[in-house]
Amino acid sequence: MKKISSFIVIFLLLASANLYSQKNVNKGNYRSLIQEEIGDLNNDKRNDRIMVEMDIEDETQPSRLQIFLSQPDKKLQLVVSSTKLIEGQYPIRKNGKYSGNNVPDFFIEEGVLRMLTDIDNRKSSYEFRLKQNNFELVKISRVIWDGKETTSHTEIDLIKGTKSEYDRDFGPNKKNIKNTKLKPIKILPKIQDLSFSDLEKY
Questions:
Q1: In the structure, what pLDDT confidence band is assigned to residue 27 with cuts at 50, 70 and 90?
Q2: Buried/exposed 188-202: b ≥16 CB within 10 Å, e otherwise
């Protein structure tokens, strides 16, 4: 009887530990394909691939960005894999509620990688250049509409260290420009090191 009781206690402890680990450990089941983009990123006239996948089994529904570059043997090699660049659909900061923001779109245009976001009604475009198998953030442009007749624009060039802000009126089409000199950035941010919150700070 004593042996049976001990067995039951051990079994319950193991079961509770297993349930706890299942709840808190992200297994990374990124099986739901959200976007696949094909194009030449490294200028070798071969197609490279961008994939955005979502883990729908996780409560926060996080997304993973993966970038594959073509190699001389014509095979694709994974050079970037990030799970922090894109905010989950049901983030912790929203206490499990829907964020209201779509998963970003990725495009390949003339060898440049662009990411488009629409977060809290602010549309942003992030431009990354490929350098030594790293995608460095080089330009940011944003626009937000006040709901009436004015849009506020921001253009940031991290290489030049410049920031231009202006408002544009739909009526008389006036343009008021405010130029700002930024602190020089010696090392440009790499896409695999950036989180969605990092991007929102610019």
A1: low
A2: ebebeebebeebeee
User: CA–CA separation, 107 vs 46, rounded Å?
Assistant: 16
Contact 53, 30 (CB under 8 A): yes
- Distance, in Å, from the CA atom of 138 to the CA atom of 129, rounded to the nearest integer, reads 7
Burial class (CB in 10 A: 0-12, 13-18, 19+), 72: exposed
As given in the structure block, the two tokens for residue 125 are 């475009």
192 pLDDT exceeds 70? yes
Given a cut of 50, whether residue 3 has pLDDT beyond it is no
For residue 144, pLDDT over 60 is answered with: yes
Q: Burial letters for 125-152: b for 16+ Cβ neighbours within 10 Å, e otherwise? A: bbbbbbeeebbbbbbbbbeeeeeeeeee
pLDDT attached to residue 185:
73
Q: Is 177 exposed, middle or buried (0-12, 13-18, 19+ CB in 10 A)?
A: exposed
Q: Residues with Cβ < 8 Å from 134, sequence gap 6 or more?
A: 190, 191, 192
Least confident of 22-26, 40-44, 93-97, 171-175: 22-26
In the chain, what is the straight-line distance between the N-terminal and C-terminal CA atoms, in Å? 66
Q: How many CB atoms lie within 10 A of CB 7?
A: 10
Q: What is the pLDDT of residue 22?
A: 34
